[in-house]
Amino acid sequence: MRRFRVTVALVGSAILAAAAVTGTASPGIAGSPVNHGANRTTFALLGDTPYGAVQREQFPALVDKINDDPKVRFVLHAGDIKNGSSLCSDELFADRVALYDTFEDPFVLTPGDNEWIDCHRVRAGGYLPTERLGAVRDFFYPVPGGTLGRRPIQVRSQADSGAHTTYRENVLFQRGHVVFATVHVVGSENDLEPWTGLPGGDQPELRLAEFEARLAAALAWIDHAFDTAEANDAAGVLLMMQAEPTDTPGFSAIRQLVVERSEGFHRPVLLVHGDEHQYEQERSYAGVENLTRLETFGDTATQWLRVTVDVGDPGVFSWTLESL
Fold first, then answer.
1. Distance of CA 303 to the CA centre of its chain
2. pLDDT single digits (tens) 67-119
3. What CATH fold (topology level) applies to the domain 27-323?
4. Which of 225, 222, 280, 284 has the alpha carbon at shortest distance from 253?
5. Judging by beta carbons within 10 Å of its beta carbon (0-12, 13-18, 19+), is residue 126 exposed, middle or buried?
6. What is the distance between the alpha carbons of residues 189 and 245, in angstroms, rounded to a whole number?
7. Which of 280, 270, 283 is nearest to 310 (CA)?
């Protein structure tokens, strides 16, 4: 676990209930256009949940709490629908689809490593990860351009882009004059770690081919998100992926492109992820003034982030920490 870089004092859920803890994104660079009076929207941000049997039992109460919030318009989930040791079965996938479909509002998920890469582990079933990735797509993205939730919406899917058409999980939509994009970037070093749990051991050729193809799709989709934002004079960009793109072999190309495109955009960019199970916010991420990293809560079904997009605010993005 990484230690907090920007610390918000949290001493149990009682503090969260006692006072609203807020965060904001870095504002755009001075001189960039700000669209005062434009739309304002609020969404719920989750990640790494439910992470086991206890959280599975708690999750309906979380759904009810979010459904009862009249300002929440959609739900984002930053990946890991289960822990890394539980069985990666079709039955579990079907359960999670049914659970996420109880949200009244559109539910947008980006995959995590626990639901496919880490399925090579013996305790997770010893599955071939690429086979489980196909199952994830079939269960959670049955129709490219759709979402889960009781009131699904149409989103733009990379499957309809004319290139990288396998990657239906990479989606894009616009709300509050902001471009939202999910990008399939996951833990376990983005699939560079060996599949050691497979009968007969790792399959490096298959694994590296998967990594390279998905990386190419991710880079193209990040470019597409920023190109769309620039073409529409958007007030901000939100990128959601499961893992933080650190400067390591599995993520360095992703990180470099996010940095380059954010620097050229000059308006607030929020990089959202999960994976490490702790709330963090980091302004001027990677030295870029208008780029903020936001990690949502994980391994909990009682805490989440309530994020507001307001293009009348110089930072565009702000959030509060919520709990049951």
1. 16
2. 999 999 999 999 999 999 999 999 999 999 999 999 999 999 999 999 999 99
3. Purple Acid Phosphatase; chain A, domain 2 (3.60.21)
4. 222
5. middle
6. 9
7. 270
